[in-house]
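Researcher: Structure for this, please.
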Amino acid sequence: MFSRALVLSPHTDDGELGCGGTIAKFAERGREIFYVALSSCEKSVPEEFPDDILRKEVRKATKVLGIDSQNLILYDYPVREFPDYRQDILEMLIRLREKLRPDIVFVPSLRDLHQDHRTVSEEALRAFRQCTILGYEQPWNNISFNTSAFVSLNGRHVNRKINALECYESQRHRNYLTPEFITSVARTRGTQIGEEYAEAFEVIRWILRD
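Model: Predicted structure, token format:
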């Protein structure tokens, strides 16, 4: 149904966390996937790592998921300050829309509590009015989440997601990066649709074309 997907990741690793299994499935089926990270969070990198570590880690992680290195696009918006750059982000997204022409766009949930995540979602809704837009789940940032769309996965897709997230050595202290947590969420969402594994999304905009 969708041949060209765009994953908007406010910070490196958000895209993998929210829809890494779906990325792996799309890549396996030959879909063209673009991954855009708006910040490499240099101000938040643990002091024992170099400032640019997340830029290196996201390159490894997206390669594991099957994304072509030429389809990885990195920006340098300062972490936790996206609301101050709202208009600039919107204009950047419009340029991406014209250049990439995606069929489907993955963004954080509109209910995400993080100010950077919500800014990206809101501006994406403005920029990609003619695309299907799905909001991905990050339970630690969502008080509520509308599970109105699902992508079924198999164990291979979940393992690729886990392997991609293991590329983020600088983020190992995050409890939501553990294989146990990733697997449990995928199994929970799979159970909801009678499958072994799945990822859930909120439908922000859904467009079907012939």
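Researcher: Any notable elements?
Model: Residues 7 and 35 are 5 Å apart (CA to CA). The first strand starts at residue 4 and ends at 11.
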